Amino acid sequence: MELRASSITLNPRRWKPGSQEFATNERLAELIFDRLVALDDYGRFQPQLATEWSRDSSAKRWQFTLRQGVKFSDGTLLAPGDVVAALQPLLATGVQISATPNGVTIQSPNPASDLLELLASGSHFIYRSDEQGNLLGTGPFVLENSTSNSASPRAEKSAADGAAPQAQHLRFRFNELCWSGQPYVDAVDVTLGVPPLRALLDVQLGKADLAELSEDTARRAQQSNVKLWTSLPLTLYAVKFPAPPKSANDRKLREALSLSLDRNALARVLLQKQAEAASSFLPQWLSGYAFLFDMESNLERAKELRASLTASSPGAAQPLHLILDGNNDLSKLIAERVVVNARAAGLTLQIVLRTAAHASSDGTFAKPESEAQLVSWRYTSLSPREALDGFALSSRWEIPPGGVPADADARYAWEKHMMEGKNLLPLVGVPDFAALSSRVRNWSPSAWGDWHLADVWLDQGDSGTILREAGAKTPPGTKP
Amino acid sequence: MACPATFWRDVLNSRFSPVNDQPARRIPFLAYTIAFIVSLVPVGDSIFAQSETLEDCVERLARKAVALPHERRMSLVWTNHAALSEQRAENLRAVFAARLEGAQVRLVQGEAAPALLVSIEQTPSQIVFTATVPAEGGTNVAIEEAARPLVARDARPSNVLRLEKELRWQQEAKILSAVLPAMSAGDETTMIVLVEDALVIYSEEQGAWNLRTTKPLPPGTSQRQRSARGQLLIADETVSQVGILLPGRRCETNWTDDSPVVCSVTTAEMHPARLLAASACGTHAWWLRSDGADWTSEDRLTLRNSVAPSDSPPAAELNVPGPVFSISAGPDGGSATAVVRNVVTGNYEVYRVALSCAN
User: Fold this and answer.
1) Residue A53 binned pLDDT confidence (cut-offs 50, 70, 90)
2) pTM of the model
3) A292 at the B interface (CB within 8 A)?
4) What distance, in Å, lies between the first and last C-alpha atoms of chain B?
5) Which of A50, A286, A336, B254 could form a disulfide linkage to A36, CB 3.0–4.6 angstroms apart?
6) Which domains does chain A have, with CATH numbers?
7) Mean pLDDT, chain A, as a whole number?
8) Which 56-95 residues of chain A touch chain B by CB within 8 A?
9) Which CATH architecture has domain B52-154?
10) Sign of dihedral through CA atoms A347, A352, A354, A358?
11) Which range is most confident: A159-163, A207-211, A402-406, B237-241?
12) What are the boundaries of each domain within chain B?
């Protein structure tokens, strides 16, 4: 298996919400950790480490019964205390989890009707640390080793305890103690930091069985015989302003920019129908109500607003800086189209890489009023409330007392209010892509990005490598 | 060696991974009895939650819509984007309309009236109902959510279609797959059982199965006990031929004679779903599949119209006493053979599952 990320950390506490790295970490953590519950394709919550659950009528108190006899990969039994230790740091402030004789109880100060969605996704894995600080799980695989270019002897340990910045190859072997049985493949070899084009070639050449692709390489894959997997639109690209508008002029600028954007053309033409136009932070597949948000593109109105801007306004006399983080090709492409759209309305935008923005000649940062940022946000939670909460926290939005509402009516109203503030101008939602070799069988990922690699098996027609069987000498499913 | 081009329309495999082969948990009957009694005692919200229906949800939405500022005459536009059948969506529309008319809102058609838009959407875990009412300078919105499994819970299984099961065989040793072929219609006096290393053929005489022959699988097809999986298929054209799908291999033999099992490399997959058809049940073909919730618990076979959405409610369902390991097509297309591991006894059981129509 080949992934784009150049480093991983398996410690869920260190994952940064909304980042692509979060998704990669989660994908690999699923190999070695389990959650309390899982969500199936039919919207049903399925038992994992919890076999039963119930809640009170207010949805503030939840009780979970743990599966009996589950062992961590070192042979120790899973205990309620392990669940408490793993989940407490991941739960919101004020939410308390406590051990019971055969399970755990979660008490929330506010109704937590989305608790199952929360626990079935994101970082809510159950794990524990051994005496050496290695993270142990109950999942179908265990991290056997990791290697790096520097061949650091610490690599293996650092990967297991969550920090494997130098690791480029990871090997996960089957966990013979896994409560749900052994996976089909004996092992999963993971190569990190593989550029998408090379990854696609590796799949085509039989050097890899599964590889993460970018949207442009996905188009190439479609034109070849490679099997292509596409998820729901899991990554939002948007223009974000650092603070609420400080003046009427500032507000007009954002309104004009928003009206100048042709999101449908962005999705259909620029991204060749591989993305969906976005009008809200939460995507339609996650909230069910995103279609209620306005996605108006009105160039004439944008021009009117532009004409009413003061001469000294960013976007008028001086360019509005559109800051880009890192060297992401897709971000650049989208940013360039935003600049073109804005120019049609008479607005001047200038793309600036983050590092360049901070290296202005006088050594000071650009003024926030003259900055916007092209951001990407990867959805990793099945709880719309948590997804919104995570973004609001990272964007320093003003969150109501008690947090983002779980109730759909109130959540919609709050999101609408925040979107009307024009701090965030959503652009497009882009899916994840992966290429699969022809010998991958039983590939049954969830639409929201779980790969379920424990269910995958490999056709034995020829010898192979990635999702490489643990030893090509002993193909999976056969006696050595 | 070439295999027959077509096998019986396949049934489907369990969603359980056959790899998940662990010793069956033998739970004493007393424990089950106690668990059953306890399960009858209303416990907090679980009973509360089960009483919820999509109709309840739509009624709440209607109450919210009525509470929004609105005109007395409105046109109702009802849109279903979720995995609800049109019939079901129409029933929900009727519930919604009745509630509105009870609140003195007159729903009109073909007349100029403000539109009350109701949309049914779907997320990974929820059915989301939105009602939008025009307002000055925009719209007012009401939203209700319901858990997606309510779609299936509320749907009434068809009265016409029925699945019936009959236990034909059980043993302690693991069974990967089984078929009940017939040389002539209704003549199922032979049972072929695929175990990890052999094909075992039984004949029925005076109500008892007698071992007729055992055909070892050739070298190279052995599988690890825990991950062993396979599937039997009977050819449409030549009933005496049985196909065996193993990971990466396809084997074949004539079960009526002493010919050996011959295997070749293949890329054919063990399909996750297969079709059943019964002429008495109309021209539809039906997907029969297992609906496993937990690897240590009882399972359910469900029947769905092959042209309906994959997440549409089942047309018929049948409980079985453990996870379903494999399903193979029967000789007439209207029956199947299911291998189930009984969670109480730990035995592997072979059931004949028949599709019947009670018209």
Assistant:
1) very high
2) 0.69
3) yes
4) 45
5) A50
6) 1-9+138-226+437-480 (3.40.190.10), 34-126 (3.90.76.10), 234-431 (3.10.105.10)
7) 86
8) 56-57, 59
9) 3-Layer(aba) Sandwich (3.40)
10) negative
11) A207-211
12) 52-154, 174-357
